[in-house]
């Protein structure tokens, strides 16, 4: 027997020893006298005393000493929100340009962050950033055109592609939020769960390849996204007056969500997996196929890898757990972490295994201090063996041994490729994911004219899909004229570089990232030329304005993490295939002094690498940071080569001297400037004849 109690429709057993805080309409629950102490299902293992849980435990007998479990402010806001509604629903109706603190936390679950322009002085000019939810990075033709329109009508005229295969739309005013949200929903898009304490966008390789393993990975990502989508209707209540605009879910998703044979669910709750408290913090999942590490698989809470038989038929999945990037400066108890091997599951069990992992985090992740609430800290504290044991009790089975995998590779999926169904796809590099100006106009024209669907990549790039072969030449020409060049005409440093948006809108930013990285990359290219590194040699460079790690700088060969105004912490030691965690090399390096660090590092990489193919990340790890620090401190500049005329470029002395004078103004030599001019000319003349 169960009894429904209160407006929140929370269901609890008929037990006089259990009491629950309820909601009286949409009033804050602190006005109620009923005490909060609900547990909707048993935990399949002992020892609950020191853990803050998703819901409170049953009331202890009156003879026992009562102790209050410490919870963060956000946990209380979630509890009192009537499943992420109150007070956001009321705040949206006010004339103020912003919403209050509680509503600011809740609107994240709806896919939005409140921001203000930090470049402006005086009164804060509030706006909202909206982030979409696009499993696998899939974007329909209709949704792309809608987002393009919304950016112009209600945003700042640009679209931002993110490192989790979604759009970000900046600059939306509060009064326009409902119109924008409604437009996205009616175009079969969503922002539900793109932010907040729940599962975020599920990554998968973006390439539209008609291959069994890729198709299976993408379908699995979509099913996991559906499994972990909130069910209580708060999103549709808020933005489309309760109208549910959804496609039918696969039956295996519905079955897995409703299954409670191992005590994972809140029976009869509007949120069977999340309950009233959702998760302790954000939760990230990625799915991929062997070798393809376009998704940074080890940085996710759960990494899912398709395992196929010798005939290419998918049989099951390897699971990694416990990855995560965020940390806090000067707090060594916070750290980035790589996922580690959990085990293997047959393909029919993947949704149940993922659910069991999520529930383990829901029940045991810390809810008292949000700095330590990600699942990586739970696994770091428990160890993988204990974590596996607890997950297995919610899963109802033992995990099989992790299957052997080949080496990972970073795959950009840029350039022209066969899809496998007669069509082509074209991956385009977009610096820092910012679609603006002529690029934005041209992409819109091409996508609209040819009725193309698109994919967003985890490296902030875009893929045009389902292109007929006859369209290749006109599309290539139009793209080149808008500056969207094929990858061989893009500086290799830019191809793998990423930066978060940072200033001026991100409230967490300490220094520049997106606005600063173009100049940083140019300066690094100049250092390459100064120390004699070839143009086609590259380093994975990522820049973030704060330590939260949105652009995954802790996986870079060279990571710059904002640690003060115009100042960066430098991280070294990541690898090209994104399998090694970088480490802190230097702190508080001013942006104008970066060359003092870059020059010796890149010079000695060229001079002392063991083989021509030794990457910068491998070199820094082999040399050791102590030795590298010594080289930086003693650096006095590279040995100067004897001046000479390069007769391959300069036919006469007068031309050389004229170019040399111009080059000096840019702190370059004549050869460097001439090469740069030639490269720019070739790129501007590209007309689509080559791939």
TrEMBL record:
Chemical reaction(s) catalysed: hydrogen sulfide + 6 oxidized [2Fe-2S]-[ferredoxin] + 3 H2O = sulfite + 6 reduced [2Fe-2S]-[ferredoxin] + 7 H(+)
Keywords associated with the record: 4Fe-4S, Chloroplast, DNA-binding, Heme, Iron, Iron-sulfur, Metal-binding, Oxidoreductase, Plastid, Thioether bond, Transit peptide
Presence of keyword Transit peptide: yes
Gene Ontology annotations of biological process type: sulfate assimilation
EC nos: 1.8.7.1
A GO term, aspect molecular function: sulfite reductase (ferredoxin) activity
UniProt GO cellular component terms: chloroplast nucleoid; chloroplast stroma
Nitrite/sulphite reductase 4Fe-4S domain boundaries: 224-399, 495-634
Compartments where located: Plastid, Chloroplast stroma, Chloroplast nucleoid
PROSITE patterns tied to this protein: NIR_SIR
Family classification: Belongs to the nitrite and sulfite reductase 4Fe-4S domain family.
PANTHER family: SULFITE REDUCTASE [NADPH] SUBUNIT BETA, SULFITE REDUCTASE [NADPH] SUBUNIT BETA-RELATED
Function field: DNA-binding protein that binds to both double-stranded and single-stranded DNA without significant sequence specificity to reversibly repress the transcriptional activity of chloroplast nucleoids by promoting DNA compaction and possibly regulate DNA replication.
NCBIfam families reported for this sequence: PRK13504.1, sir
Subunit structure: Monomer. Interacts with ferredoxin.
Protein's recorded name: assimilatory sulfite reductase (ferredoxin)
